[in-house]
Amino acid sequence: MFFLIFAGIFLLVAVVLLGYVATRVNKFYIVKKWVGESKGKRRFCMLLPILVVFIFGYLDFVNTVIVVLHLGIFCLFFELVQKVVQKVTGKESGYYVAGIVAIMSLAVYLTIGWYNAHHVWETHYQMVTSKDIGDKPCRIVGIADSHVGTTFDGEGFAKHMQEIEKTNPDVLVVAGDFVDDSTTKADMIRSCEALGEIKTTYGVYLCWGNHDEGYFDGREFDFDELKAELQKNRVEILEDEAKLIDNRFYIIGREDYSYRERKSMEELTKGLDTSKYMFVLDHQPHDFLAEAKAGVDMVLCGHTHGGQMFPIGITGELSGANEKTYGLETRKDTNFIVTSGISDWAIKFKTATFSEYVVIDITKE
Questions:
Q1: What contacts 233, CB < 8 A, 6 or more positions away?
Q2: How far apart are CA 170 and CA 191, in angstroms?
Q3: Tens digits of per-residue pLDDT, 180-214?
Q4: Helices (H) and strands (E) in the chain, counts
Q5: What is the distance between the alpha carbons of residues 182 and 146, in angstroms, rounded to a whole number?
Q6: Which DSSP letter does residue 27 get?
Q7: CA pair distance 122, 139, nearest whole angstrom
Q8: Which of 41, 104, 151, 238 could be disulfide-bonded to 343 (CB atoms 3.0-4.6 Å)?
Q9: DSSP label of 320
């Protein structure tokens, strides 16, 4: 419900700002010189940006709306700045300085956002436990929200796995939203193969996210085909179940929060050896209280994309849609990590965060 309300407000604001931007075209000096006193040319110049937005919106609706929103906001901000400067100096410019600065600033801002989304960083966490995890530290590398097809295809995903392999993981875990509605069958298959190719000590473990099953008809593969391809490549799919790894630690994979019949944390940990380290995969950061109460040692979540673009992260936490947007938090004896993920859903920019995979080293104190 929150998503639908937010999306509706998002679109309404975008439409209003598009109208506002269209009225500003005639303020540019070159346009004013060309238009002169012609009402027809003035109307044409106002309709042109709307036409351009409709064309690009047909090709990529979400990112076109993102650009329109930011252009409108930047124009409003710099117009306000220009008016303040004019009032202070008592001088008016014949040029639409606010518009020029807005476009230049937007270009820089979204270029940085594009790079943050498409370049994947390594984020390192060092954890200490009193539990016996064996004679040597354990390295768990985690990814989430690959949404294959948004910022990289199947081959791009495979290249990221090759980089991750260089970290020498004991385990690779996938915290949901591996694929999306827009993922092609070829890219899904190649990405599953990449998970099967990566060299680890104990293998690859995955829990589902809210996008993996798909929201719409028309995807080139169904959920059963995705499962079969993952299993074919020796990926362990954890659907409300715990797996004891080499008698050293547990990996517990939860069904997604959107799956209302999923087991409680109490049910999932019942009968487990609590003297062993318990690592939980839970796509959405939504059940921190129960997970801390259950006494698990660590929970890895994704879903939020680290806030993606300002102020999405703030609204997510204020509305209660997410308990945390990004980073590490400790409650009782449980550590929670929310990763920004290695890609995005639909949006090709990250201006509030960056893409990442996490390297978690667990050592005995």
A1: 192, 193, 195, 196, 197
A2: 20
A3: 999 999 999 999 999 999 999 999 999 999 999 99
A4: 11, 12
A5: 12
A6: G
A7: 13
A8: 151
A9: T
pTM above 0.90, yes or no: yes
C-alpha distances in Å from residue 38, one per residue of 31, 43, 49, 88: 11, 9, 18, 34
| Whole-number Å distance between alpha carbons of 269 and 13 | 46
DSSP class per residue in 25-58? GGGSHHHHHHHTT-HHHHHHHHHHHHHHHHHHHH
Residue found under tokens 């009968």: 271
Locus of tokens 């049910």: 267
Residues of the chain with CATH 3.60.21.10: 121-364
- In one-letter notation, the amino acid at residue 90 is G
Strands 298-301 and 334-338: parallel
Instruction: Render pLDDT for 40-73 as a digit per residue (tens, 0 to 9).
Output: 888 998 899 899 999 999 999 999 999 999 999 9
Q: Residue 306 gets which letter from DSSP?
A: G
Are 222 and 257 in contact, with CB atoms under 8 Å apart? no
Q: What's the CATH number for 121-364?
A: 3.60.21.10
CA separation for the pair 186, 14 (Å, rounded): 34
Give dist(CA 21, CA 192) in Å, integer: 44
Distance (Å, whole) CA 248 – CA 132: 7
